[in-house]
Structures are given as structure tokens and as C-alpha cells.
């Protein structure tokens, strides 16, 4: 496999045809395309990782209303940031966004280092492609991107064999992206590449008849559009079990614990979790003696990209509790605080009424999705 593969079309022809398509069919009125700044573009790019545009728009608008600039974001506490991220998933993105804002304020005097791809890529949560997208979209300077949509377009156009996550395949795709990226109209070109992948060259239902590269696409010529790009080799998802303690006091408030800053639901507030009923009872004996257990709720499954978590809620009531401490707090479901909540916990809390426990319904999922934007 060569590091410099041949292109299907001369770069100038590819660029002209793509931009002609974009001028008519591209997306020109997304919120982050208005009043473009490195900050607004950065927030949108982080939110768009693994998440569709239609899902991101209301989150982006709420986020901008509360944190209109990097200074406001850096000054906020993590709970407030994660509260606005609740439901968007992949919470490490929210934590890294907050960390990066503070780095920009402390190390770059509040200005994003868009003059340097390396400096942008060194910020928490920003990789090579995201750094390129921020630079291109906010400054118009030439920068190459290779997000999931671009990978899919180039993989199909050239019938690139192998999973794009493999280093050799990724190097080939970066080489193609580099050769096709123009020096002019870079904002439109990068957006056009993302739009083509998101709206026509979709994974499951590509609309080849509307594609400006239908006659050159090697995957289409072979009738193998759905074979490209090749999927990551699958491994069976392991399953874990946990008991979540729904401990209510006489006022109907629920006890929450803040998760460690790294790892599963890092920094979010969750219900106390235990491996088994013995561990849960031992915790109650120590911290909430006299607590009365109710019947367990039905087990439900929350799916992550790398494992399934079977959650069994265990309701209990207590009259008094030892000192709550910094990592615990009482939460009133009827007057919720602005804190970041793990998705299944948010659903459980919403099902509560004062002094009443009602079994939850439904299936929660936080699976990795095709990064269609």
C-alpha cells in the first residue's frame, strides 16, 4: 500500500465539482456558521464528534447562551458544564472542552492558537482532524480534515480496502485528503466534504444518483457501496452488572454521588453503585443504619460502545443519614439542580415523585454511532 495513492480525478476537477454541488445543495445556515469565531467553531466541532447535526443544534444554542465565549466557559464549574452536556453522551468531550477552555485562558491569553495545527491539536480533546476543521472553518486558512464523513467519501471513491482505523489505511486516506484540499475556498470545501458524507454518501443509504462523483466512484462502479468503508473487526461486548441505590429521605430527596473525574461517567453525578446486595447492605449499615429496602425495580440495560451495563435499581428509605460530604448531595427530583447527570440516572430521577417510587420503563443506550453530521 503506497503512502501516495493515485487520485480518481485531478484535484482541481474534484474541487470544482464538489464546490459546485455545495453551492446548490450544501448546508449554509447552521448556527455555528453564523458569527464564526474559533470559539464557536471549536464548540460545534467537539459536539459534532459522534453526534448528528440535528441533535447538536439545540445543545449548541443552549451552550452559547450560557457560555458565549471561552472566558465564560473557563470560569464555570464542571458541574454546570456537564449539566448542559447531559443527554449528549460521550461525556469526556464535555470535560475536555472545559479543560481546554482553561488552557486557552491560562496559556494562550484567551486566544485560540489557530496559527498552528500542532498547538491546536495539543489542546485537550482536539485531534489532528478536529484541529484542521477549527482552523479551516474559523480562519479560512488551508487545513486538511479527515472526520468520519470524509473517510467514508474517500474510501468509497477510491474503494480503499481495510478498516480506516488501521494506521496504514488511515495514512492513505490522509494522503488523499491532503491532495484534494485546495488553497482557496477552504471553509466551503471542508464543509462540502462533511456535507457530502452526511447527506448523500451515508453509510446505510447512499444516494449515489445525486452524487457529483457517481461516474468516478470505484465502489459504486463495483456495486459495493455498502462494503466501504470496512467496519472495525467486531468483538463480543462484555456485560457487567450493577445495583444502583435509590435512597430517599423523608422529603423525597435522592442521595447522589459524584463519579471520579476519569473513567465511566467521569465527573457526573450518579446513584451509589454496588457489585452485589451484600456490598449495598454493608454500605447502608455504615452510612444509613435503619434504612428500609423496598422491592428491586426491573433490571434494564445501558449500552456503551465497549460494554453493556445491566442496571438494577434498588429503592430504599431513610430518616437520617451521616454527614453527606463533598462527593455526595441530596437531589430533589421536583426541583432539579443544574448538575451533570449520567443518562440512565437522569431517567430514573425523572420517574420519581415525592414519597413514591415508580418502576422505570424503556431501554437506555449510549452506543457509539456513525459520526454522521
From TrEMBL:
Catalysed reactions, semicolon-separated: Hydrolyzes free adenine bases from 7,8-dihydro-8-oxoguanine:adenine mismatched double-stranded DNA, leaving an apurinic site
Residues of the HhH-GPD domain: 47-199
Cofactor, how bound (note): Binds 1 [4Fe-4S] cluster.
Molecular functions per Gene Ontology: 4 iron, 4 sulfur cluster binding; 8-oxo-7,8-dihydroguanine DNA N-glycosylase activity; adenine/guanine mispair binding; metal ion binding; oxidized purine DNA binding; purine-specific mismatch base pair DNA N-glycosylase activity
SUPFAM superfamilies xrefs: DNA-glycosylase (SSF48150), Nudix (SSF55811)
GO biological process, one term: base-excision repair
Domain of life: Bacteria
InterPro entries, alphabetized: A/G_AdeGlyc_MutY (IPR005760), DNA_glycosylase (IPR011257), HhH-GPD_domain (IPR003265), HhH_base_excis_C (IPR023170), MIG/MutY (IPR044298), MutY_C (IPR029119), NUDIX_hydrolase-like_dom_sf (IPR015797)
Cofactor(s) the protein requires to work: [4Fe-4S] cluster
Family: Belongs to the Nth/MutY family.
Function noted in UniProt: Adenine glycosylase active on G-A mispairs. MutY also corrects error-prone DNA synthesis past GO lesions which are due to the oxidatively damaged form of guanine: 7,8-dihydro-8-oxoguanine (8-oxo-dGTP).
Protein name (record): Adenine DNA glycosylase
Biological source species: Halomonas eurihalina
Amino acid at each position: 500500500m503506497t503512502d501516495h495513492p493515485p487520485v480518481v480525478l485531478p484535484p482541481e476537477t474534484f474541487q470544482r465539482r464538489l464546490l459546485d454541488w455545495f453551492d446548490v445543495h450544501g448546508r449554509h445556515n447552521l448556527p455555528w456558521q453564523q458569527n464564526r469565531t474559533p470559539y464557536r467553531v471549536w464548540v460545534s466541532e467537539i459536539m459534532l464528534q459522534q453526534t448528528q447535526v440535528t441533535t447538536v443544534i439545540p445543545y449548541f444554542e443552549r451552550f452559547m447562551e450560557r457560555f458565549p465565549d471561552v472566558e465564560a466557559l473557563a470560569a464555570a464549574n464542571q458541574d454546570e458544564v456537564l449539566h448542559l452536556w447531559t443527554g449528549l453522551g460521550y461525556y469526556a468531550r464535555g470535560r475536555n472542552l472545559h479543560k481546554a477552555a482553561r488552557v486557552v485562558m491560562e496559556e494562550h491569553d484567551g486566544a485560540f492558537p489557530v496559527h498552528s495545527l500542532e498547538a491546536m491539536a495539543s489542546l485537550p480533546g482536539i485531534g489532528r482532524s478536529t484541529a484542521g476543521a477549527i482552523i479551516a472553518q474559523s480562519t479560512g486558512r488551508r487545513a486538511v480534515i479527515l472526520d468520519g464523513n470524509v473517510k467514508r467519501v474517500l474510501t468509497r471513491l477510491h474503494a480503499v480496502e481495510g478498516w480506516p482505523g488501521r494506521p496504514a489505511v488511515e495514512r492513505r486516506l490522509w494522503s488523499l485528503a491532503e491532495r484534494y484540499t485546495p488553497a482557496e475556498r477552504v471553509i466551503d470545501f471542508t464543509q462540502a466534504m462533511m456535507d457530502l458524507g452526511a447527506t448523500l454518501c451515508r453509510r446505510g443509504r447512499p444516494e449515489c444518483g445525486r452524487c457529483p462523483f457517481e461516474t468516478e466512484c470505484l465502489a459504486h462502479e463495483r456495486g459495493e457501496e455498502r462494503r466501504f468503508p470496512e467496519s472495525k473487526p467486531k468483538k463480543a461486548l462484555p456485560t457487567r452488572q450493577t445495583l444502583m441505590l435509590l435512597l430517599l429521605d423523608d422529603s423525597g430527596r435522592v442521595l447522589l454521588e459524584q463519579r471520579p473525574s476519569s473513567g465511566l461517567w467521569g465527573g457526573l453525578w450518579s446513584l451509589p453503585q454496588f457489585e452485589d446486595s451484600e456490598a449495598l447492605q454493608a454500605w447502608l449499615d455504615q452510612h444509613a443504619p435503619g434504612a428500609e429496602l423496598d422491592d428491586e425495580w426491573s433490571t434494564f440495560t445501558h449500552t456503551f460502545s465497549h460494554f453493556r451495563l445491566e442496571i438494577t435499581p434498588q429503592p430504599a428509605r431513610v430518616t437520617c443519614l451521616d454527614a453527606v460530604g463533598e462527593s455526595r448531595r441530596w437531589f430533589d427530583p421536583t426541583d432539579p439542580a443544574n448538575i451533570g447527570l449520567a443518562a440512565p440516572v437522569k431517567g430514573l430521577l425523572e420517574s420519581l415523585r415525592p414519597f413514591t417510587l415508580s418502576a422505570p420503563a424503556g431501554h437506555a443506550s449510549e452506543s457509539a454511532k456513525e459520526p454522521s453530521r
